[in-house]
Amino acid sequence: MNIIYESLLQIYPYRISSQVPSKFYQLFRVFFLSAWTLGQLTLFFWGKNLDMTSWDTYIVFWEIISFSSIDQIAFYYDFANPLILSAIVLPCACICMIGILVLLCIFKRKSYYFYIVALRVSLFFNCEFFYIPIIRLLFCVLKYSSLNYEEVEEYAGNSSVNDFNYGTFGIAVSVMCIVFMIILTLFYESCSFEIRFFLKNLILQCKSNCKVSIINRLFQIVIAYLFTNLKVSNYSFYLIFALGVNLACAYFITSDLSFYCFWENVISLFIQIDSAIIALTFIIGLQIKNASITVVLWIIMQPILMLLSYQIIKYRQGRIKDFRDMNKESFRNYELTIRNMLYTGELKEELLNWMIKNYKTNKSSYNKLFQAYYCSDILGLKMLGLAKISSENTQPFDICAGFQVFKCKKYMHHICQEFSESLKLLNYFSEFTEIKSLDLDFCESFRSFLKKCLSDNSDINDLKMQSRKVIDKMKKLKKKYEILLGIYPSAIDVKELYGSLLINILNESDEGRFYLCKSSIKKKDTNFEKSNSFALNRSFVVISGDKKSLGHIKYFTKNFTSFLGLTSIEAQNLPINLLLPKDFRGFHNFFLERFVETTTTTTVFRCSPSFMLNFKGFLCQFLISSELIGDGKTVNFLCRADLIPDGSSRAFCFLYPNGQIKEHSKNFPEIIGVDNIYIENLYIQELLKDFDFEDFYKNDEVQERLNRRNESITMTLDDTRVGNITIKVLYIGYSKYDKGDLTMNEYDKSQKKKLKFLLNNGESTLSKNIEGFCHELSSQDNLKSFQQETSKPETCGYMRNLSFNEKKLIQNSLRTLSFTKLVLIISIAIILIVDISILIYFSKEVSRLTSLKVFLNLSDMSYSISFASLISRMLDIDLRSQTVNPLFNTTDLRTILVNLKDIQDKLQNSYDSWSYCPVSSIVHSKKLTYWELESSPIRYQGTLPDVLDLFIKHTEKFILHLESNDINYKPHLYFISFNGMGSIILAANQTIEALSECEIQKAQKLTIISFYLVIGGGAFHGLLLIALIIFLIKIDKSLNRLWKHLRKKIYTAHKQMNQKIIKRLVISHDYHENEERIKDDEIYEDADLNRNYRHSVKYVKKFSLIFALSVIMYGISYYTFLRPVDEYLSQRPLLIKSVMERRVQLMSLCFYSLEKDFENSENSLARLFPENYPISDPKSKILYISAALKYSKSILIEPKSLEIMDTNLKNLIFEKATGSSFIRNGLFRAAAYLSQESLFIAFNKIRDNNETIEKYISNTIEFTYLVEDVVDKIFKVSGNAIENKLNGYMAFVIFYCAVIFIVYMVFINPFLRTEIMIVKSVFRLLSIIPSQTVLCSTTGISKLSRKSTIKITK
């Protein structure tokens, strides 16, 4: 949770007094926000259609009162949609922005100021200013997206259900946004207020806790839910519930008094009571059915409610008891009793003691918060405040207390860091310990790498990774050293450690001497030695005060471990109890814990004599000064321990009241005259004759006696009390001392000196004595002198350690890897270009094949000509038979002619789109046979547009004759009937058939091309991979040359390097007893230094991933996208043609069936043209068309045809259609019905009446309209199916490109970058390892060269 708190702290940082706005601004903001909130709450209680008289009049008043309800305003002024979208976007945006801020904190990146301001403003609008409208809108979206409603019930104005209905998406998004709102509200209410009560003039959002605010917000969410789901159905119960909720909130506000400002509590209470009164007025108005009562009562109650709120808060404050009588209450109640005293600070430390007593009874994080702020702001004990809050840990999900504690820790640590020298010293210890740990880790890793590099079993990948880790650790270690020296430029311990690292390990002699020179100059300073000579026996130790590691040693100086004979490894995390005398151990941790909880000062004790046991069990006496220090994370005890040396003439022991010796110092047996080293559990009366405790109290404090060897010794006795046990300390010595000399020697006098920190021991003092150290350690003067006295070398030292050949070798290796990276990028680019080229070509060809407009134009032409022929024939019959109510008129025929002229233009203009097909010659060059009736039928030839033009002209002349009731139109009727139902339709049908064959052939050709493109692309990628593998094999030579050189150099210098590392481990890291970790390495006499590694294998494995993905991509794209699209393209023309033909076929069938029915009448064409009958054998035509209908039926039910239809289209064709009864079972059955009807009319051997004929013609026309609609849908649906597949293919290619890019960026590029960094690491390793070639005395050839030559020969 600390990362989240760190992010929230950037949004709501701790304030200082200068950041507090003016009092007028704060009061204005309080009143404005309160009025704004009250206006938004008002909308909860009234609706647009209430069952009260005069409600239409008084609703205007409540609309004005609800002025801040922007959701209501949005419906009046018609911007509801943008507001709803904003209500959805704003919570999501806030969550995303907070998530980004958390990620920035995780990766320790700086966030921009404007981003923090934007996030803070967004949270304010989301969780404060527009909180209630957003919640209402989200619940409305959830409601109206879940169920079907006719109107919006919650809002008046121009509200529409469609504004809220987002379907399943709306349900999911609204629930998600409501959850986001709850989360944001919890964080906002927990973090936006200021708990510090000492910021003078701060009024707004300054309170003791956020409990009431969170409860209030949650209640508002409940009311908003009931506002949308209960208000309309049970308005009375809703009002009663709202009344109870607001009264409950008013009770919590009165009971808690969370705001420090009196008027803010009054206003908060007034809002809740006023909301309750509004609910009550509407309950009364609903009962008496009068809207005026709601307005009158509410207006009258306003001043009364304000006065009532004022009196209630005043009464509640008057009922607060004395804090001394409330000490055992929870801190939430206890804080009310001490709030004024916290602000004034009149009780000083006494109030702090009372808060400590309350904390013992009720553990509360808020108690520690108030203690910390009270210590810092009132008592001025900032370090004590930091210690108080540092010892407090909160529960993970207690957001409010957790954030405020975290904020307080950060604030206290910030202000204490500026002036507290003890905290600076603690930070120094922490950082120095961390840097020693890093130093140790680097030495062990480097030593392990040297061993592994000479091992014949070593794997090149392990060597590469380990070399990279070694160099990364080295860089991190150097950076840490330089940062630490930048903060503490006079820290001699750090300089010595860093300088020895540079000289002995990193082979940077100039830089190392630079730091060691500074260290030695400081040590040789005579004034420094003289002024600090009294502190040579001083040590420091930091003991943990945290409950989990209470009493454990965290940090210590060299002197501390040397005084007690411990190693640094033994002392680390050692419980301090183990170093105390046995009688001191029992209650020590208890005393530490109690001190942390109950202290009112940071000083534990100052210059107090104390005792510890060294590693042999002898007592050592120290002068101890201890201070409690918090670092914002834990609390610690910083102890200064000044050793009082025994010497050869002074000793002491612990005595029980009966004279039994418990523990003693090292020299005590010798001075007492006993030969044994340990004399514990003996009685002093047995060792010294006539020894009596009373003599030290009655006669003289210092007495002279004879030891067992009859030597004169001086002794004195002190009493030390541990718990209920009194322990006496007996001091003895050879010479005559005063009591003070025997106990403390001269160390008490040394405290008067100003003690400076001994930088060569990494030590400091406490309190005021620390000030000298920290000033010297981090002063700018020392920093400047540190930078100027010895100029640091400008050039990198390790560059000078490399030979020309080594530099050239590194450059060649880096150049090879860079070129490899470039080759791979070019290969990937070629792969992507090939794939995208295939996609572009395929998409272009598909777009050509999916454009079947010529199909539709030719079909429309055939249909229009057949329809015109049918209408012309019917008009002819009607005119000759003098039909009263004809089915058609000349207007219908003229409409068809207009369509024909438009189709004629389309055919001329679209020639280029189908010119690839040979049948397109019908438009320009191919001659079409047609007949004209002059004196006799004459045969002519012309192009399709010419014949169509003649058809239109003859039809127009035919219309003119009809309109003038002139029946001399036989030539025109002959042309229309013979050519319209003959050569023109036949030519159009043949053209459509040929065109469909062209389309199918082109689709099949595209199938073959796409297959070869896929095969060719895969083969090309394979060749590219082979070329890349051949190139990668060649890089082995360059990289092997580099690694051979590194291993040979390590071979010559590994003994020397190993000894240096061992020496550093022993001296700097106390590896005295761990013999296994510091033993000499084996001498690898038989190491194969000319071993070749297969670097290219790993490269090929990595790079093959991209090519493998390409092969998979080609397989998936062909079988999932390309082949289905080819099949769709082949089937689509057949499907469209089969459906379009039905329209023309049934219209022709209608024409021939009628002619068959009329063949024996006077109006038949056989009678009109007895010698030149234009229609030969209508019967055969009818049977031919019926057979053609059955063939088109088989195309419709093919599986491939069904694949490119959607469900609605299938239903329209096979199951259900809208229209007359004969087509309600679908197009399929309707065509069968009309076919049977035509056969019945043609072959029933009777003349059908006009009603039957007209019904049949009407059904045929209705069917043709349905077919036209079906054709449009097939064209659209099949095109969409192909387009969807094509879009899927495009998306798949884009996805593949993205995958290739991600694979390259996530796997390949980091791998190559790592390989380049490894070469640079080898470069750095070559500079670290010293060049050391031992020449043979006889031949002058180096042993290494000789040995390598022998190895190669073998």
TrEMBL record:
The chain crosses the membrane at residues 27-46, 83-107, 114-144, 164-188, 235-254, 266-286, 292-313, 822-842, 1009-1033, 1103-1122, 1289-1312. Pfam families: TPR_TmcB (PF25474). It comes from the Eukaryota. The keyword Cytoplasm does not apply. Keywords: Membrane, Transmembrane, Transmembrane helix. Residues 423-516 form the TmcB/TmcC TPR repeats domain. PANTHER family: GAMETE ENRICHED GENE 10 PROTEIN-RELATED (PTHR31600:SF2), TINY MACROCYSTS PROTEIN B-RELATED (PTHR31600). This is TmcB/TmcC TPR repeats domain-containing protein. It comes from Stentor coeruleus.
